[in-house]
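Need Ribonuclease R's 3D structure for a figure. Predict it.
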Amino acid sequence: MIRIPSKSEILTWIAENPTKAAKRDIAKAFGIKGAARIDLKRVLRELEDEGKLQKRKSSYRDANKLPPVSVLEIVGPDSDGDLFARPLEWAGEGDAPQVLMVMKPDEPALGAGERILGRLTEVRGEDYSYSARLIRRIGTNPLRILGVFRAGSEGGRIVPVDKGSQKEWVVAAGATGDAKDGELVEAEQAGPKGRMGLPKARIVARLGDPTQPRAVSLIAIHQHGIPDHFPDSVIAEADSAKPAGLGKRDDLRDLPLITIDPWDARDHDDACCAIPNGDDGFALWVAIADVAHYVTPGSELDREARKRGNSTYFPDRVVPMLPDRLSGDLCSLHEGVDRACIAVEMQIDRDGNKTSHRFVRGLMKSPASLNYEEVQAAMDGVVNDKVAPLLDDVIRPLYACYDALKKARALRQPLELDLPERKIVLNDDGVVEDVAFRERLDAHRLIEEFMVLANVAAAETLVAKKTALLFRVHEEPKPEKLEALRETAQAAGLQLAKGQVLKTGHLNRLLSQAAGTDDAELINISTLRSMTQAYYNPENFGHFGLALLAYAHFTSPIRRYSDLIVHRALITAHGWGKDGLTPEDEAMLAETAVAISDTERRSMLAERDTTDRYLAAFLNDRVGAMMGGRVSGIAKFGVFVKLDETGADGMIPIRNLGAEYFHYDADSQTLMGADTGVVIGLGVRVTVKLVEAAPVTGGLIVDLLEIDGKAMPKGRSTHRGKPPRRKMSSAKKKAAKTARKVKRTRK
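Structure prediction for Ribonuclease R:
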């Protein structure tokens, strides 16, 4: 009689022979033949029912063991830099085991969230249970959805918060994650989309009530995947940091290095002073917080800062690049306390030219932390008690130095765009109280000009010392975008030079022509849209917008990782210590440049989306009101209007323009009515009615009432959204009728 192996014997054999786990392999191993196979099948089914085995097609495996080949999702590196993954096919008890990725030098880098097929080996005596080697990537991550859950009788639906998404997602009853109706949820695509019906999703996180005021920025944080929680190891490292002492640093504590920031600034990373010399020039000092002293290469703080790339700013909160112990304390140049810094002294002549400069690693003590408004007010004759002692010896020299720098700036001709910046004003409950436009003061321009000059000095020093760095690159506009700008200018009766090497001075002349006219905002917006996006690169391609040959970001290391890299490069170039640019940093510069350029764009999109949502919330109780604005965009599907009062962008869907068909001309960026001949183009002044404001998505829908002060004409056609049909002659009608008869006869 053939003996059937026990359940434990079967489990042990499968664990030791994971590649031979088919029923026939098990039968062969234990010498089971004939009718005894039926008993083996019964035992295997019992193990499966008990959850101790999992059937995979024609083979079995221990449910508490991973298969030798498995689908894994990359989690990311740990504090030691080892790359880990999590198995997506775990069906055992407890948490899924950790999997260490063992990568070959020539294999591609794997990013967090990426899914791969890996070959696993069980490991004993380590913190992790398996190691894995890459077999192949298996495509993109499952699509993530952020939306509002609407419960139904059998599961429910998710309405996306992204105003660019029109489709809903179906959630099965077992995939709701216990979400309640109306909750903001995060979900992922559940399997491939079928040919019919809505796509399926499974809820993976519940995020609370989307109507709460402070949920607005939370939506953007989750939608764009911005890390907003510091790991315990990062916080612990920041908390253990101690203030830097003088040591081998230059003592700059006698310099009147003041900080000038917005009144609600969360950090102070730059300070400045200007000391007149006997030749009507100045020694201009710019001191920047020495973040590199605290955030050293390869540390937990460094890894997290690189992952974040930059701080992200919202009206109600900031998602910082560094923990508050650094960003709000040790690296913030508060008044009256010693702070480590890297400073540059620049000699400025009476015409605003930088004749020389030198960098030092120092210790400073700021005599005052001021805001833009009080500094400007003092220069305009309204002096408060805090500014009064500094007015003559500190603030006036800063303005005098700026007056000199303006001469050199006028010759350099950086791009002079004039675009008002919106500011969302919230009350204590986080509700929008007002939408204001930020006032541009000379105090703002002064600090900006000093920072630009310090950034130039950093780039020039590192180039001269042949030290690797990250440049801030801004390339010339693409020819096609430049031609579109030229056509927009011509339509407004303005000229943009053609047939010569483009310089910022040419664009400034165009902007100057438009200044003070009804087309000023249109020309400024069109000029901005013609520009390429600035980015980071270890190679220098110049900065077109600033009209500079070499430019690097040096002045904001608290909130930009690029500046931290430049600080480390300066430390290495001057031999100031062991916390400079490492060979590993240098080898990864190209990869770092791409990563932080991406995080910068991510933050810009998140900040813009948040502003749109706050504006929609602000305008929600004004649905039905008439508003003035200008056409800011034309597309096949509709018209975008920038509203005068708030700067918000409302959309007029093409179907709402009237009964007639509108021809879209991409070259001229116009829509023309087929019946009335009315032309809707960029910059046209319009009056609209707000018909919908959706705070969750940030979408605004408006109806067009007037164009250039005249009522919107109504077309005679009834072919809404379709090209007009031409009338068919009687001869053609007869021929068509005959053709249909012949066709029926042949059938």
